[in-house]
């Protein structure tokens, strides 16, 4: 049976034969970087067409159906258009920060890819503090939005940036606290340990009601943190034209767009890892035969299946709910989500100490 | 030169250059952004040292928290687009002197301190160890300072609520 | 009491959100509900909604007769003056003068399809048609005369 670690070892051995260790390491890093960029491109294409089709079907429309079979190449055509377009920099803008902001958004998204386990043995950096690392870096995204909003020298952009700042700073709390619920149950922040702890069942089933509450609050907080509707005040089209990326065009706009989708993917994969066991197949306690059958489905299919299901749920939110007002948004966080997650954390701690989970 | 040394020098260069830029730029928003890169550089050095927990905390607290707060207060108070006026030469000299004194003091401490090598293995900076030490009550545990800091934070929270609370009679 | 309301709030909010999500999921899974018309492709089989309004027409019967008495109610009802009734006096066989229309001029380029003229008409002489492919190269072609040449009023319409 082949596995990703075998492939990685093979590549490493082949390289080590021909080059000295430093160059081997450099080449391996380049390979990892190129594969991340490739994954970004594919994710962008897939998620954009998925969003457009999902939105169309939910609104009783047909959606893109001209380019390619059933319109599936639409996002490729869009990308081509964005590449050809001119990347404008407005006259009154702070040119350095204006051009830096989309790249910061992109770099943060790339760094967030590091601790995600895509399949069994396919993880770039299994660091000790996986979940903390993700929640720490995802808070840096707001900097790129603030930079873009301020340096555009445009009132709409600035308003969008302020809103998204207030939003991300507050929703980070409940996202972190709900992730902490699973960390308490597992007793570790490491992604690989969180996944192996779910070998006899996913936490959402093992952790009873507290895990379900944590999952719901996590999904809500994540939707807010990635600036997606119904929390998309930062780019509310009807109020702020496009919010913080009003002035961006061409590839710089595409980078923001891509970063948003990649962030959605990353957050959903984190949710899948925490609550649905990442690449871990559906195992139920001691039903060894059932577990064995489930093991035949490759782990990468499990991971991407769960992640794309959660992405679909977030898209489902977007095309169902109306946008919140800023005061409703902050009310929801500070008056509802935060107390609930804190109470839930207490509950989870009790469950973990008393050993009520399976 | 080893690869990791090159990485260290790159991180140090980022930290120092952005630090200097953040005090020398005349646009206050840019100063905040340079400060951000300085703090990210320091977090990078922590990652380089394999102190991942400290690095992540550095990013959460300083990059995600403090710098965002600074940027917010700049948005709310300053006319951000304009350049600040040039400082008087007296002030410049004074602040340069202060920086030099601080630098000299730190360097003096570093050079006077005798670093003794040890054969014992260093403690693993894993989250479990940090947590146990942070909340431990015996030999070297930090439970008391931890609780004191939490009391301080609680007091700050209560103070915020008292300031922000609406007085119904006054509102009428 | 406060806690009770708070918890009740949360549950009712979750319930109402789930109702909305159920509806969109229904549409997502039932593609036959899609109402988009792929217009130029299905031009021959295009089915327009009953209440779609394309332009004002005046129906004539097989004897080239219409129901318009020339009362100018439509002209008065039109908010932007797209109808102009030009009347004449017919001399009936018994020597009486009778008011009738010479031309009913309709400016399609001014019309907003508001249906007020159709509602104002006392004798149901005009109605809204569903034709909508109105583009022409010359603006003058949009000024139409609704009554056919040589047509006359139907018997019994006063």
Model description:
The complex is a heterotrimer of chains A (358), B (172) and C (158). With 358 residues, chain A is mainly alpha-helical. Chain A folds into two domains: 1-84, no CATH class; 95-354, no CATH class. Chain A is 70% helix and 1% strand. Chain A has helices spanning 4-18, 21-58, 74-84, 95-113, 130-138, 141-151, 155-186, 191-196, 203-206, 208-225, 237-240, 250-276, 288-294, 299-318, 326-354; strands spanning 117-119, 122-123. Chain A has a two-stranded antiparallel sheet with strand order 1-2. In chain A, helix 2 (21-58) crosses helix 14 and helix 3 (74-84) packs across helix 12. Chain B is mostly helical and 172 residues long. Chain B has two domains: 1-82, Four Helix Bundle (Hemerythrin (Met), subunit A) (Up-down Bundle); 124-172. Chain B contains seven helices and no strands. In chain B, helix 1 (3-24) packs antiparallel against helix 2 (28-48) and helix 2 runs antiparallel to helix 3. The mean pLDDT of chain B is 83. Chain C is α+β, with helices and mostly antiparallel strands and 158 residues long. Helices cover 24% and strands 21% of the residues of chain C. Chain C has helices at residues 2-29, 73-77, 116-120, and strands at 55-57, 65-66, 83-91, 97-107, 127-129, 143-145, 152-153. In chain C, the strands form three sheets. In chain C, strands 3-4-6 form a three-stranded antiparallel beta sheet, with no helix packed on it. Chain C has a two-stranded antiparallel sheet with strand order 1-5. The relative contact order of chain C is 0.19. The A-C interface holds A 54, 57-62, 316-317, 319-321, 336, 340 and C 10, 17, 20-21, 23-25, 27-28, 31, 33-36, 38.
């Amino acid at each position: 049976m082949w596995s990703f670690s075998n492939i990685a070892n093979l590549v490493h051995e082949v390289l080590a034969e021909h080059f000295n260790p430093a160059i081997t390491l450099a080449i391996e890093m380049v390979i990892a970087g190129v594969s991340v960029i490739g994954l970004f491109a594919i994710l962008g294409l897939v998620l954009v067409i998925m969003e457009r089709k999902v939105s169309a079907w939910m609104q009783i429309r047909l959606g893109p159906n001209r380019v390619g079979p059933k319109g599936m190449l639409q996002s490729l055509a869009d990308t081509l258009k964005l590449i050809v377009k001119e990347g404008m920099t407005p006259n009154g803008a702070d040119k350095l920060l204006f051009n830096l902001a989309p790249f910061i958004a992109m770099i943060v998204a790339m760094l967030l890819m590091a601790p995600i386990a895509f399949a069994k043995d396919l993880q770039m950096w299994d660091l000790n503090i996986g979940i903390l690392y993700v929640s720490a870096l995802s808070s840096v995204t707001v900097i790129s939005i603030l930079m873009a909003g301020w340096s555009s020298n445009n009132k709409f952009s600035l308003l969008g940036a302020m809103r998204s700042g207030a939003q991300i700073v507050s929703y980070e709390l409940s996202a972190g606290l709900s992730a902490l619920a699973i960390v308490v149950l597992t007793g570790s922040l490491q992604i690989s340990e969180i996944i192996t702890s779910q070998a006899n069942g996913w936490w959402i089933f093992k952790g009873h009601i507290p895990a379900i509450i944590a999952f719901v609050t996590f999904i809500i907080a994540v939707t807010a943190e990635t600036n997606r509707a119904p929390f998309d005040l930062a780019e509310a089209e009807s109020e702020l034209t496009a919010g913080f990326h009003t002035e961006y065009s061409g590839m710089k706009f595409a980078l923001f767009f891509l970063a948003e989708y990649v962030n959605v993917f990353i957050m959903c994969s984190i949710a899948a890892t925490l609550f649905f066991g990442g690449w871990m197949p559906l195992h139920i306690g001691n039903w060894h035969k059932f577990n064995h059958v489930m093991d035949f489905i490759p782990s990468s299919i499990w991971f991407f299946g769960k992640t794309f299901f959660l992405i679909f749920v977030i898209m489902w939110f977007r095309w169902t709910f109306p946008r919140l007002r800023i005061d409703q948004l902050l009310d929801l966080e500070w008056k509802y989500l935060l107390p609930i997650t804190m109470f839930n954390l207490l509950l989870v701690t009790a469950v973990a100490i008393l050993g009520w989970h399976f | 030169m080893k690869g990791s040394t090159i990485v260290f020098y790159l991180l140090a260069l980022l930290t120092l250059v952005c630090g200097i830029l953040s005090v020398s730029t005349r646009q206050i928003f840019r100063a905040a952004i340079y400060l951000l890169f300085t703090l990210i550089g320091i977090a990078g050095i922590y990652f380089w040292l394999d102190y991942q927990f400290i690095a992540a905390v550095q990013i959460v607290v300083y990059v995600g928290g403090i710098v965002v707060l600074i940027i917010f207060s700049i948005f709310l108070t300053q006319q951000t687009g304009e350049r600040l006026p040039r400082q008087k030469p007296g002030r410049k000299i004074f602040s340069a002197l202060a920086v030099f004194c601080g630098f000299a003091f730190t360097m003096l401490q570093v050079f006077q301190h005798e670093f003794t090598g040890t054969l014992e293995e260093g403690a693993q900076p894993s989250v479990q160890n940090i947590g146990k030490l942070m909340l431990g009550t015996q030999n070297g545990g930090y439970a008391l300072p931890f609780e004191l800091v939490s009391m301080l934070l609680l007091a700050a929270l209560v103070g915020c609520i008292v300031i922000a609370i609406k007085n119904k009679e006054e509102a009428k | 009491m406060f806690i009770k309301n708070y918890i009740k709030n949360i549950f009712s909010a979750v319930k109402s959100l789930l109702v909305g999500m159920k509806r969109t999921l229904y549409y997502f899974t039932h593609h036959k509900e899609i109402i988009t018309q792929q217009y130029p492709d299905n031009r021959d089989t295009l089915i327009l909604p009953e209440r779609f309004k394309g332009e004002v027409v005046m129906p004539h019967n097989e004897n080239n007769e219409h129901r318009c008495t020339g009362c100018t109610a439509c002209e008065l009802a039109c908010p932007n003056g797209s109808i102009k009734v030009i009347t004449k006096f017919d001399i009936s066989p018994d020597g009486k003068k009778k008011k009738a229309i010479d031309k009913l001029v309709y400016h399609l380029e001014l019309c907003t399809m508001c249906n007020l003229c159709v509602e104002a008409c006392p004798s149901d002489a005009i109605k809204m048609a569903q034709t909508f492919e109105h583009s022409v190269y010359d603006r003058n072609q949009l000024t139409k005369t609704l009554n056919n040449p040589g047509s006359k009023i139907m018997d019994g319409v006063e």
